[in-house]
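TASK: fixed-backbone design
INPUT:
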């Protein structure tokens, strides 16, 4: 896994994403028997598990993790074709953060994330120059959590620049010790 802080709530939420897996061994206690108890899950059965659990079980060779549908070859082609039209918030609010974890396992994912982020970042910068009332735009509604944070930073920078240009940002005052 990537080196995020143990206490980072966004990282914790990102690794809660479920990924498809195929068990390589019988596991006791992973399933539920419907009557409140746990049951055995058999070898070669397909499960969807939270990434944090699947990653650890994959390291121990208890299962094989499959590619999450959001990082499949087909999805990656869609992202490359039109990154600005992808509704990342509908896929997951922590798309890039989850992608960093998946990128440790699938070599092509970091490049896909980088290309998509750079193209979407240009649009975020353009939108930030439009002012504060941009929340209703479809593209803004599609931003994942890190992109929404970047939009807010860009808007704050635009506001600070405008204040500086209008000489409102800093005013020089006479020091109280001078007559």
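OUTPUT:
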């Amino acid at each position: 896994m990537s080196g995020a802080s143990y206490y980072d709530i966004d990282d914790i939420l990102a690794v809660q994403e479920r990924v498809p897996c195929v068990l390589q061994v019988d596991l006791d206690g992973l399933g539920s028997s419907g009557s409140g108890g746990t049951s055995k899950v058999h070898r070669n059965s397909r499960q969807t598990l939270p990434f944090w659990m699947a990653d650890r079980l994959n390291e121990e060779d208890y299962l094989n993790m499959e590619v999450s549908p959001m990082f499949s070859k087909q999805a990656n082609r869609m992202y490359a074709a039109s990154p600005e039209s992808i509704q990342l918030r509908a896929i997951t609010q922590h798309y890039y953060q989850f992608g960093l974890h998946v990128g440790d396992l699938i070599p092509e994912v970091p490049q896909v994330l980088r290309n998509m982020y750079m193209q979407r970042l240009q649009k975020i910068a353009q939108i930030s120059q439009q002012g504060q009332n941009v929340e209703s735009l479809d593209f803004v509604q599609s931003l994942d959590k890190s992109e929404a944070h970047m939009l807010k930073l860009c808007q704050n920078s635009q506001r600070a620049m405008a204040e500086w240009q209008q000489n409102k940002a800093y005013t020089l005052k006479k020091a109280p010790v001078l007559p």
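COMMENT: The helical segments are 9-14, 51-59, 73-81, 88-91, 95-103, 109-128, 138-141, 145-165.
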